[in-house]
Amino acid sequence: MRENTSTEWVNKEVDRESDVRLYVTLVRFDCAYYPVFRLNKKLLRDYPNLWAYARDLYQTPGFGDTTNFAAIKKHYHIDCCPSNEFAIVPNGPDETLWMTPHRREKLSGK
């Protein structure tokens, strides 16, 4: 996978719908897709540019304040995973990591 390193958003020429659609995938990756679907080569935070992009969006009003990690984990670990007979939901992610500086200001000139 090749990461975009040159622009702030996925598509600067259009509205941010593509950013919203990608955000919901990225925010679910470490807490749902990685463990449940065994997409376990790397975590999101192992991809520096995607991790910074995801944190940038998370810290944008309307993204992080509407993200519910507990609901995401419950849905994927219990509702979508009938083989999880004991309804085990792992701890994490550490939500404080989502508030660490993303250092993407230079891309937007902020």
Structure description:
- This protein is 42% helix and 0% strand.
- 14% of the residues are buried.
- The longest helix has 20 residues.
- The model has no long low-confidence stretch (mean pLDDT 79).
- It is built from four helices and no strands.
- By secondary structure, the chain is mainly α.
Brief account:
It is built from 4 helices and no strands. By secondary structure, it is an all-alpha fold.
Topology summary:
Blueprint: H1 17-36, H2 48-58, H3 69-79, H4 105-108
Helix pairs in contact: 1-2, 1-3
What helical percentage do the residues reach?
A: 40-55%
What class, by secondary structure content?
mainly alpha
Distance between the termini: 28 Å
Number of strands: 0
> Biggest sheet: strands, sense, closure?
none
Spans of 5+ residues with little confidence (pLDDT < 50)?
none
Mean pLDDT: 79
Q: Nearest-angstrom radius of gyration?
A: 15 Å
Q: What letter string, H or E per element, gives the SSE order?
A: HHHH
Tally of helical runs: 4
Q: Could you say which overall geometry the principal axes of the C-alpha atoms support?
A: elongated
Q: Give the quaternary arrangement of the chains.
A: single chain
Q: What percentage of amino acids are in beta strands?
A: under 5%
